[in-house]
Structure formats: structure tokens, C-alpha cells
Amino acid sequence: xxxxxxxxxxxxxxxxxxxxxxxxxxxxxxxxxxxxxxxxxxxxxxxxxxxxxxxxxxxxxxxxxxxxxxxxxxxxxxxxxxxxxxxxxxxxxxxxxxxxxxxxxxxxxxxxxxxxxxxxxxxxxxxxxxxxxxxxxxxxxxxxxxxxxxxxxxxxxxxxxxxxxxxxxxxxxxxxxxxxxxxxxxxxxxxxxxxxxxxxxxxxxxxxxxxxxxxxxxxxxxxxxxxxxxxxxxxxxxxxxxxxxxxxxxxxxxxxxxxxxxxxxxxxxxxxxxxxxxxxxxxxxxxxxxxxxxxxxxxxxxxxxxxxxxxxxxxxxxxxxxxxxxxxxxxxxxxxxxxxxxxxxxxxxxxxxxxxxxxxxxxxxxxxxxxxxxxxxxxxxxxxxxxxxxxxxxxxxxxxxxxxxxxxxxxxxxxxxxxxxxxxxxxxxxxxxxxxxxxxxxx
Amino acid sequence: xxxxxxxxxxxxxxxxxxxxxxxxxxxxxxxxxxxxxxxxxxxxxxxxxxxxxxxxxxxxxxxxxxxxxxxxxxxxxxxxxxxxxxxxxxxxxxxxxxxxxxxxxxxxxxxxxxxxxxxxxxxxxxxxxxxxxxxxxxxxxxxxxxxxxxxxxxxxxxxxxxxxxxxxxxxxxxxxxxxxxxxxxxxxxxxxxxxxxxxxxxxxxxxxxxxxxxxxxxxxxxxxxxxxxxxxxxxxxxxxxxxxxxxxxxxxxxxxxxxxxxxxxxxxxxxxxxxxxxxxxxxxxxxxxxxxxxxxxxxxxxxxxxxxxxxxxxxxxxxxxxx
Lengths: 443, 323
Hints:
The complex is a heterodimer. Chain A is an alpha/beta fold. Chain A has helices at residues 39-46, 84-93, 112-125, 148-154, 169-180, 204-209, 216-233, 245-256, 267-271, 274-280, 294-305, 321-324, 341-350, 357-364, 366-371, and strands at residues 3-13, 18-27, 30-35, 52-56, 61-64, 66-71, 96-101, 129-134, 158-159, 186-188, 200-201, 213-214, 237-239, 261-265, 311-312, 389-399, 418-428, 431-434. In chain A, strands 1, 2, 3, 4, 5, 16, 17 and 18 form an eight-stranded mixed beta sheet that branches. A four-stranded parallel beta sheet of chain A has the order 6-7-8-9. Chain A is globular, with a radius of gyration of 21 Å. The model of chain A is unreliable at 439-443 (pLDDT under 50). Helix content of chain B is 39%, strand content 14%. Chain B contains twelve helices and nine strands. In chain B, the strands form two sheets. In chain B, strands 7-6-5-8-9 form a five-stranded parallel beta sheet, covered by helices on one side. Chain B has a four-stranded parallel beta sheet with strand order 2-1-3-4, with helices on both faces. In chain B, helix 2 (72-83) packs across helix 12 and helix 4 (104-113) packs across helix 5 (128-135). The relative contact order of chain B is 0.16. The chains are: A alpha/beta, B alpha/beta.
């Protein structure tokens, strides 16, 4: 494999406290050296057949390849919407080199064979590395526990039943207790299903839109309860999508009590509000949990600054166009997000000075890597770690065009929006992808 | 627009109406609302003639696309379109079968391909008319979408109130009943606020969205406390399904707390207007005597509905043709 020398970029590697102009040498699929590199450092790789590709990174930000905690990849069962290989490719276009896929497939990822299937597909695609999150219960039915120990042995990085386990507090409690033996987090959906039936955020906008509302209370209730379960069981609870003021407060309280809780949010939750939903009944804005109010957006941003929300994930959810072309109340929830995770975060939070760059990068690299227990090889530019790198032009302004989306589905409200900051190159385990090419038309 | 051919017919709208669609009263300006109401006054006169016809929509195709059962609204639209000489086609679709089969957008594109000029749509999903309006270049008139809006009902209520009370600025209008699930309430609220009226809603807390306060609407939970305050009580139909959903205990308690009967009427202003968009649950939200009593304008609302819908049909069609 060809060695790559990334020269003269601004290297942002929060895990190692590094934010400085430096060179990065990658070879044999690993990080070999970081710093002001001399010719002698590179020499050992010059003589090899493949040689050294030199990337001039002057003016670019060089960061660890992003780690996305949350993507729905549709395979198996819903391949017309997305596949593991398709998701892994879309991820590369977003600077993401590691992504966790959710088990709400058909059949669900609830056996060793299913876990191995995902890992095999990921290896075959050889792009972003896909790590399976397994179901907490058999068939994801929320009743009997899945073979969690065997799932871990097969390579599952976390457990989640998505919406299902919340239905039954006793299942969730037992599942968290059992999962804690294997040092794997339980990712809970964080919406009480009995309260969360609706189409958009409950409140002023839903009242005027005449759409059934999903109250913020549904989130607070589920998050507060799961925090209590984490306290009782010692299980690491990860709140998948925090979107409301009071749920963020619930996590903050639990953190103070030293309960093992981590939390993520997604770019659309801090970039958009429910006011946008009402304007056109545009199903591209229909997502679960729903887009919230301006006040919630301010709380999410504050939660990120304070580190209460320590991860930003895409929640990539492909929905085919024929389903998004339905009436708002009938269309499925979901936004594709692999390609917009970084640009939206940079545009909305970093360039505006709301979130320090290092903290934003940490929320998309080392923090999720730790959560998935892969920080020993992912999420930082530590020598010996996987050669996963994202190179970003921080100043480039560009407009997201539908044709620039490589995912099979294009259900995102960000089409037509302008961003500042663009991924130029992604390197995944030493493989270099020039991702500015297929989107050149959008520049 | 009606021409001289039918004798004395309304003049062209005094201000430009540029909307090919009528999706709700929220998006209309005060002037646009007044344009419709003025236009409707002219059309109302046609209804009193022995030959109730104007040539305004001659050669145009109006389709009523109803995904929800309706007698009054659909008949009113059909009559309005026929009085304007349009060809009218009625299509009732069962939402449950529509769910399995063709999507709304596909249905609409097919019908458009057959030459439909104006779609009049009723649908149980809020926003369905907006979706339709984006999908076809025909005019789209919302005849009620879920719990969102029912703009022509709102307009005919405004029309009726204006006919009886004159200028609505500063007038006090109460909507009584299930506000949460009422598209009629939303259209009334928007229209009344834009015309400067004071708007109150009265009903059980579980059926009144608190967010209405942010619009400047007064919220009351006890009808008896406000009987003497309002000039108009617009009474909404209460639906039994809400009882099953645990939103209120039942018809008996509802009737005792919110039913408008002679006893309550006696405590209202003497010339108070009693309105109801129909269909009426006699003996539940309104007593037999009040529904048919001298303060009731319920049947006038129905008559005015035809004139208001004629005005809306004529205006959206003229906008589409760029007249």
C-alpha cells in the first residue's frame, strides 16, 4: 500500500491535545508519524514499490477520520433504501471513516451471524469501517434478552433496541444490567413511545399546522428513566438523540451524580427548528425526534459547549422518494446525514464561534470512538492507530445539491443550503479518496 | 370574472388577487380576505335570481376530491361551481384504499392530465392540499385538511358575521368546543384576528391548545363565566371519538358544562349571534331550541357558503389565467 505524507496542514487531534501545523505520515494502513517531518522520517517508505504520495495540505484542516455513532443502513431487508456498502461510501464523502449501524434491520442484528454479516459486508466494501450495534433483545421485540455475550464476542460494539425496549421498563432494566457485564453501552432511543405519537414537535407550530404533536416531555421521561437505570445497574447509558431542554438537564443531573451517561445530538437538531416544518409541510424536515423550538436549539448548543452532549452523530436514515412524497402525517421519519454531519457542524457551530474547533472535532472523533470502545485504533492520529484522516477546506463555501449526494436516498432538508467548510480528501485505513470530485458541480 | 352577459354581475376584484390556490386563511392578508368577502356579496345576489348562473368558469373543469366524507361542503362547492358554469366532477376516495394504492400526488397528476383546472380537496391529513398545490399547476382549494384549516368555512363565517354586525374590528367572537381538533377554529381564528376582532376560545383544557395564547387568543375553561362578554358564539361539533381517547369524560358532562341551551342563551347579549359550522349534535353542544331560535344564523351560514365558494373559485381561476 502506498504511503501518504500530508504536508503542512493544521492538524487538529483533540485526543492528543494537538492543534498545530504539522505533517502526518501514513503507511501500511497506520499512522506512522505526526510532527515537523524531515526527509529522513519519510525515507524508509520512499524505496518501496508504491512510493509516497504527498498531499499538500496547506490551508486545510487535518483531523482524524470522523466516527459516526448512528446510521441506518437498510441491509439486510431494506436494500432499496440503502446498503452497507452504499452507506460506507456516503460516509467517506462526509469525512467519516468509522460508522456504527443500527440493528433495526429486517431481520434485526440480534445473532452472531448477523453481526458477522455486517462485518463481512464492511470488509468487502473496504471504505468506512462499519461496526454493528446489536439488538438488546431477540428479534428486537423487547421481551427476551439477546445473547449479548456472544454478540460482543462476534464484534458488536453496543446494544440498542431502538424504540422497542422503552416499551417495557423491566426489559430495559434487565438488559442494561446484563450488558454492563460486557462493558458495552446501551443506546436508548430516548422517547417514551406512549407519549411520542405525533408528526412534529408539540407546541405553537404544531398547533397552527394542525399536526399531532410529539411533546418534549416524551424525551425527558425516557432519558430521566434510563439515567436512573444506569445509576442502578452501572451500565453505560448513551442517550442517542438529545433534542430538548429538559432532557439535557436530566443528563446534566445524572452526570453530576457520576452516573455513566453519554449523549449525542444530530446536526439538524441544532441547525433547524419546527418553524421550518410548518412552512411547507415538507417531509424532508420530518424526523424523529422532531425538530424542536429555538429555545431547545439554544439548549442543545449550550449542552454541546458544556460537554453534556459529547457526541454529534448523523442519524443517517434513508427514506425512498416515493415514501417522502406522501402527506406529512403519513410519510416516514428520517434524514440522510452522512455527508452533512461535518459541514453543518462547522457552519452552524464552529465558524460562528459557538463551539471551539477542538471540541467539535472531539465530538465527532475521539468521543464516539471511546463510546464504541475502539479508541485504541480509531478517532485520533496517535501513532500506530488506523490511518483514518479527513482533510477539510475550512473556508470553502458551497451549496449542497441533490446530485452531490451519493446516498441512494436524498431525503434531506439541507439540499440547496450553503455551507462553509468542505471535506476534500478522506483517508480510510490508508486508502485515499478524493471526495471533492463528484460534487464539483455543487461548488 | 362574470361578464355583462348575465346582467348585473360583480365587477372585477378591486385589488390584485395573485393566488392560484387557497390553502388557508393564515397566509391571506386582510385585504385579500376582504376581496373574497366583497366578491361573495356580488355572487350572493346571483343566488336570489330565478336563473342562478354566471358564465365565469364556462369551459373549466372543477373536481371535488374528497378523501373524507362530507355532504354539506361538497354539495356547496359543486353548486358554486355549477352556478359559475363550470363542468363539475365529484370524486370520493376511501382513504384506506388510497393508502394501499396510488399516492395523492400520482392521483392528482393523473387527474390534471385529464384537464382539471381546479381541485377542491378534503383530506384527513394536514398539509395534503399544500402537497397537491406543489404537485400540479391547477388551482387547489382546501376544503378542510385534517385539523389544520378549512378556509372557505372560515370565510363564510366571516361573511355571515360581517353581514350581521358590519365591521368586525373590536367585535368579540368566541369559539366553543374542541379547538384542538378543529380546522374550522383555526381558520376562524386567523380570519378574525386579521379583521381586528377579539377572539376567545372556550372548552375543556384537554381540547384547547395552550399555544393559542401566543396568537393573542383568550382562553376560557368555564363557559358560564363569559356568556355576557361575546357578540358571537360559534359552536363547534363535539366528536364522540375524543371521549374514547380520554380527552373528556363524556357527552353528559360536556353538555352540562359547555352545551348552549335557552338558559345560557338568556344570559348572553340579547342580539348575540349563534353560529355552528355543522353538522349539529342537537342536545349535545347546542339545544334544539337555540339551534332553531331567533339568534341562530346557522342556515344563513350555509346559504352564504355557496356565494363565498363562488368567489373563491372565481378568484383562484382568474389568478391562474393571469387576469
